[in-house]
């Protein structure tokens, strides 16, 4: 495939410029049921031997955010459009692709949709003529997420094989520190029911915890977080639960920060929908259940 696409031209080795080596990276791509779908190979440069600005300039391949893909899927569900998927057999940085309809590209995976069936078929034929790719038909899985079509909605599940076990080979962790973290998590479950399952799982390894258990416990710590969820019609399609990047001095301020982050996300989602041809002419309602935080937003002295 590299030779067929004329990826490079063979030249004499330069004497004044350091030559960067390459390495083949092999990966087995699995189906959602765990069976082998195909074997993949990637040729990569040993970039760790380079220095930015000296050996190379910035190299960037734009990909769609998962939020964008979910927005596209929510829009297609509302419009009752069919979603299709193509898999490119080879991908290259800075590759030029024709743009038709609404197309979302993540490296070598393409999801596309639209209201015109003829245009969808034309797009697929053009792409398959210009590039070697596999027609995967209707969207059924995308980067480990399994999608299933329902009436005016899509449901999706994420399957993972990550499990905590008694002996995992990661080495022993401090039992005292681990028990301290898990104890604090127990206290937090009184007001944070979303971490109850994670706490109950971590509590099984109070004796002889490993570094993996300790690292998992640290990721669960919810010291100062914000969360939001956006719906398109009746379907929730964009959400987040992220640690805040600044310290709130009181609960209302924490809620105000959450509202601010949600507002930024709402503005971005409106831009995405406008790109999809769905200009939002009305304001996006933002719901918050903290009276003090709402009062702060209405008081210009706090802005």
Strand arrangement across the biggest beta sheet:
4-5-3-6
- Can you write the helix and strand succession as a string? EEHEEEHEEEEHHHEEHH
Helical/strand content category: alpha+beta
Mean pLDDT across residues: 82
User: Which radius of gyration do the C-alpha atoms yield?
Assistant: 24 Å
Distance between the termini: 56 Å
Q: With helices defined by DSSP (H or I, 4 residues minimum), what is the helix count?
A: 7
Helix content: 25-40%
- Report the sheet with the most strands, covering strand number, pairing sense and barrel closure: 4 strands, antiparallel
Tell me, what's the shape? Answer: globular
Q: Beta-strand percentage?
A: 15-25%
Q: How many strands?
A: 11
Q: Which ranges are low-confidence, i.e. pLDDT below 50, for 5 or more consecutive residues?
A: none
InterPro entries: DNA/RNA_pol_sf, RVT_2
Protein name: Reverse transcriptase Ty1/copia-type domain-containing protein
Organism: Prunus dulcis
Pfam families: RVT_2 (PF07727)
Describe this structure in words.
This protein has a four-stranded antiparallel β-sheet, with helices on both faces. The protein has a three-stranded antiparallel β-sheet with strand order 7-8-9, with helices on one face. The termini are far apart. By secondary structure, it is an alpha+beta fold. It has helices at 66-79, 117-130, 175-188, 196-202, 211-220, 251-275, 291-298, and strands at 22-30, 36-45, 84-88, 102-106, 109-113, 133-138, 141-142, 145-150, 153-158, 225-232, 235-243. This is Reverse transcriptase Ty1/copia-type domain-containing protein.
